[in-house]
Amino acid sequence: MATIASKLQLVRSRINHACLKVHRAQDSVRLLAVSKTFAAEAVREAFEAGQRCFGENYVQEAVDKIQALADLRSQIEWHLIGPLQSNKTRVVAETFDWVHTIDRLKIAQRLSEQRPEHLPPLQVCVQINTSGETSKSGVAPHEALALAQAVAQLPRLRLRGVMALPAPSDDPREQHRALRAVRDSFNDLISSGLTLDTLSMGMSADLESAVEEGSSMVRIGSAIFGQR
Ligand SMILES: *Cc1c(COP(=O)(O)O)cnc(C)c1O
User: Fold this and answer.
1) How many angstroms separate the CA atoms of 204 and 208, rounded?
2) Which atom, in ligand 1's list, is nearest to the CA of 165?
3) What is the pLDDT of residues 51-73, one digit of tens each?
4) Are strands 157-163 and 198-200 parallel, antiparallel or unpaired?
C-alpha cells in the first residue's frame, strides 16, 4: 500500500507539473492536506513527511485532533473548510488559523469579536457559490463583493480571498474560471491596499485544472490520505 509520504510526493508532483504547463512558479500554489475523517496519527505521518497546512470540515472532530496534536500546534496551520454555524464560532475563533467558508456577515462578525487578543487575526476567505442552484453553500457571485467589503472592515479578521466547492456534477474548469472572475471583480478592494492573494480551489480530482486556472491553494484529501 502506498504510504502517506509517497502519496504526498505524488500530489506535489501533480501540482508542479500543472504549474509548468502554464508557466507558473511552483511555489505559487499551497497544498492544504484535507484530513477530515482521518485520525490524528495520519496527520502526524503527513507532518513528518513535511506537510504543514491541514484542512478540516467538522468543528468538533477538528478540535479533538488539534488537541491530540498539541505538541505540533505551533508548526501546523489549521484551516476550517466546512460549514460553520453561529453556535460554533467561539471555538473556531479560539482554535483555527484560517476559515475558508465565510458566507454571512453575522458569522464573520462573531468570529472577529471572539478572536482572542493573543492570537494573530483569523485569516478568512469568502465562500462563493459558483454552482448556482446546484449547491447551497456560499454567497452568490453578485453578492460577493458587498460581503467581502464588509468582512474586510472587521478588526480581528484578515480577508485573504475566495473559496468555492463546486457540486460534483459541475464542469470543474468552468467553476474555477467563475471563481477567478469573482476574485478579479474585487479589484476595487485590492487597489485599496488589501492583498487578496488566495484563490482556494481544486481537490483531488480537479487539481490540474484548478492550478491552470490560477488556484493559489488546493485542498487535497483522498489523494493523500485515501478514500473516505
Ligand atoms: C473533502 C473536501 C476536500 C477534499 O476533497 P478530496 O476530493 O478528498 O480531495 C476539499 N475541499 C472541501 C471543502 C472538502 O469538503
Assistant:
1) 9
2) 13
3) 999 999 999 999 999 999 999 99
4) parallel
- Residue 204's SS3 state is coil
Question: Which atom from ligand 1 is nearest to the alpha carbon of 228?
Answer: 8
* CA 163 to ligand 1 centroid distance, Å: 12
Confidence of residue 4 (pLDDT cuts 50, 70, 90): very high
Task: Give me ligand 1 centre to Cα 218, in Å.
Answer: 9
Which ligand 1 atom lies nearest to the CA of residue 204? Answer: 9
**How many angstroms is it from 203 CA to the middle of ligand 1?**
6
pLDDT confidence tier of residue 219, bands split at 50, 70 and 90: very high
- Above 90 in pLDDT, residue 194? no
Residue nearest to atom 6 of ligand 1 (CA): 221
Residue 168 has pLDDT above 80, yes or no: yes
Nearest CA among 6, 5, 24 for reference residue 218: 24
Is the distance from CB of 189 to CB of 147 less than 8 angstroms?
A: no
Length of the chain: 228
As a whole number of angstroms, the distance between CA 66 and CA 17 comes to: 32
Best mutation site among 127, 219, 222 for ligand 1, i.e. most ligand atoms within 8 A of its Cβ? 219
For 4-139, list the strands marked E by DSSP.
30-34, 53-56, 77-80, 98-102, 122-127
User: pLDDT class for 191, splitting at 50, 70, 90?
Assistant: confident
